[in-house]
From TrEMBL:
Classification via InterPro entries: AB_hydrolase_fold
Domain of life according to the entry: Eukaryota
Taxonomic lineage from the root: Eukaryota, Metazoa, Ecdysozoa, Arthropoda, Chelicerata
Protein name: Serine aminopeptidase S33 domain-containing protein
Gene Ontology CC terms: endosome membrane; plasma membrane
PANTHER family in UniProt: ALPHA/BETA HYDROLASE DOMAIN-CONTAINING PROTEIN (PTHR12277), SERINE AMINOPEPTIDASE S33 DOMAIN-CONTAINING PROTEIN (PTHR12277:SF39)
Any one Gene Ontology molecular-function term assigned to this protein's record: palmitoyl-(protein) hydrolase activity
SUPFAM superfamilies the record matches: alpha/beta-Hydrolases
Amino acid sequence: IAKYLECFYAFNRYGNRIACIYIRQSLKRSESVRQTIVYSHTNAEDIGTILSHLWKMKRKIRTCNIFAYDYSGYGMSSGSASERNIYADIEAATAELMRRKSLAPNELILFGESIGSAPTIHMAATRIDPRAVILQSSFMSGIRIYFPYNLTGGQTLPYDPFANIDRCSSIKCATFVIHGSEDMLVDIGHAIAIYERLKHPVQPFWANGASHMNIHKHPDYYDRINHFLTSIR
């Protein structure tokens, strides 16, 4: 496995060291794959704890390399976790990936899961125009997860962090929304509201019976992702 992996650091605008991992799809130059998934993970993990999941993604999604990074204060990344840092982290990590691999924005698929949907939406809405976006177990905003208000997408409170619902309409590329029907942490209504705000949504995947953290075990999960990736080639 190690020969497929490349680990390195990026540095965000505040000087924090951001741990990154890149998993290439093939070692053969003749079979090289350019398209790369930029995966932003959940709140409860780091790239060390999800290495097996990233490797499974590599095996199941044969058309893309896999890239992931840790937020400030997570894993081997320095600094502390904050909304300001998480946005700076994805900017720095993506820029370093593009520099090292000579990638253009349209060769990137931004994939955010749970809290990772926030930096993903930020990046796609305000920084680059990627090839596509995947939002899994996404939420409208931080406070709305625990104290539901304006669930149809009305005005967001000024102190409410990670206001995904206010930014997602600025994404200019095809966007695939995935959510578990039995998600008890982030109600599926969050994903529906985001889906309805998108400019270029594709058919969503409402994973029947899936919860917040086990969608990847759904039998149709990788088939649906691969179908989406094929559609945007």
